[in-house]
Amino acid sequence: QQQVRQSPQSLTVWEGETAILNCSYENSAFDYFPWYQQFPGEGPALLISILSVSDKKEDGRFTIFFNKREKKLSLHIADSQPGDSATYFCAASEGMGYKLTFGTGTSLLVDP
Amino acid sequence: DMKVTQMPRYLIKRMGENVLLECGQDMSHETMYWYRQDPGLGLQLIYISYDVDSNSEGDIPKGYRVSRKKREHFSLILDSAKTNQTSVYFCASSSHGESSYEQYFGPGTRLTVL
Prior knowledge:
A: mainly beta, Immunoglobulin-like, five-stranded antiparallel sheet, B: mainly beta, 11 strands, 0% helix, globular
């Protein structure tokens, strides 16, 4: 079964808009949630991460909102740029451990 | 410059042939990983290596084996490749210090098994 789910599968926004990518999980023991960004032909790269003790994490234009009770989190990309066009993976692990469980990804296209 | 390298980048094999995928990292990371990525499935963990000769199965180890004889090098071996092992394979490494759990990924190897 898919322990980490992402929606939507694909998303198109205009340049300057805020893109919202959603993620949900089933395992209550998950406490570390990184988001990885992947461009075509490249490996994923860590974008931003949050621990379950926090409900919000900001890094420039990127913000994670985390709701532990509902087991949901979202990645907000403010002032989206064409260079943000990529696939974004939500992942999770227990005890900030080694084994990450990845979602299936959201493909974001930012139209100029 | 922190880097994970993978060789080869592209590989075509026939069913039943043996396959060797190589991964290297220059960060002295203890932990290394092999994933495969298929459309619509995200990244699936095949094997994890906690250090030299300390390997553990991931979520989908069947049909694969690994070798880690040096900290900076991690190999994925497919004995008698199957067509359903056609995929993009990613290697990653990490060091679990006090504040960082980031996995650094290589550029991937696209394997086609005919």
